[in-house]
Amino acid sequence: MDSTEEKNIILGTYQILSLLGRGTFGEVYKVRVLRGRYRGKMMALKVARNAEVLPYLWREVQTLLLFNHPHIISLQSYLYKKDRGELYVLYELMDVGDLKDYVVSNGKLSEENALKVLLHVAKGLEFLHSRGYIHGDVKPENIFGKRVLRDVVWKLGDFGLVRIRGSESIIDVKGTAGYIAPEVFRGEIHRSSDIFSLGCVLHFMLTGRDPFECEDRKEKLKRNKEGACTIEDGLSERIKTLLHIMLSKDPTKRFRTAKELIEYMIRERLA
Ligand SMILES: Nc1ncnc2c1ncn2[C@@H]1O[C@H](COP(=O)(O)OP(=O)(O)OP(=O)(O)O)[C@@H](O)[C@H]1O
Asked: Does ligand 1 come within 6 angstroms of the Cβ of 45?
């Protein structure tokens, strides 16, 4: 560590203000940019050191560089320090944090708020889907909020498992139990697999639990593989109908893409 880093300055450019969190890649810091194009701005800097997961972060970097959308987290720049085996990635700061923490701290969302978040994320996904990409890891931890005036804008992040449609004949099962579409366990993935995961996110926002929740982890995984979800009682009929479509075991019975979901939401006055 050089002397500038001792003063909490990374690469002579980013002043660390706080630690936002730790993930499998390394740490994410809230930083103030001290020079260059973004001078004076607060941003999120990911410092990735774990060699095993670097390829996933590279995939995210390569994908995000191509994307510019109000509901997809934006990547400002990156730097690879080959000698140290470290990748530094600068993102826009999502000051509300992720949706998982948001629901855990604020409690379940009202239907109106949950539908608002759903629409924001669906718009980000629509952009991806229309370009032939599948996100592959839609879950509350990968959805981030940012305060804009008095409102919160929600964006899709974490593109480490992104895929181009049809690029792999057999796929590995990655993701988080509770949010994986059942066909993914059979080595199949479609854009509608993201719709299934987003349905699980909607269930989580409204009830505080994913639709496969149970004490026993093995049993939960089994239920997820079988697509045996339990939709909690107490939700309105229109939400239950929406969840039944999104969480359908058969991928062809779901919305095929996020565009179809948005069209349905508009038609049914859910958006
Ligand atoms: N742009 C951002 N703005 C604000 N907070 C962020 C941002 N990116 C990540 N974080 C926070 O930093 C922490 C670590 O995030 P990170 O994305 O590195 O985890 P991860 O390694 O991807 O997670 P996982 O281990 O599930 O893959 C999380 O708490 C997350 O909410």
From this structure: no
Ligand 1 contacts CB of residue 138 (under 6 A)? no
- DSSP annotation of 142 reads G
CATH topology for 3-92 is: Phosphorylase Kinase; domain 1 (3.30.200)
158 annotated active-site: no
Joined together, the tokens standing for residue 59 give 């995939």
The boundaries of every CATH 1.10.510.10 domain in the chain are 97-267
> Which residue out of 22, 141, 176, 197 has the highest number of ligand 1 atoms within 8 Å of its CB and is therefore the one to mutate?
141
Global confidence as pTM: 0.93
For the chain, give every residue range classified as CATH 3.30.200.20: 3-92
Contact between 123 and 71 under an 8 Å Cβ cutoff? The reply is: yes
**Tally of CB atoms within 10 A around 98:** 21
Q: Write the pLDDT tens digit of every residue in 18-74.
A: 999 998 888 999 999 999 999 999 999 999 988 888 888 888 898 899 899 999 999
Average pLDDT, the chain: 92
- The answer, yes or no, to whether any atom of ligand 1 lies below 6 A from the CB of 44, is yes
If you classify domain 97-267 with CATH, what class do you get?
mainly alpha
Is-contact 174 134, C-beta < 8 A? no
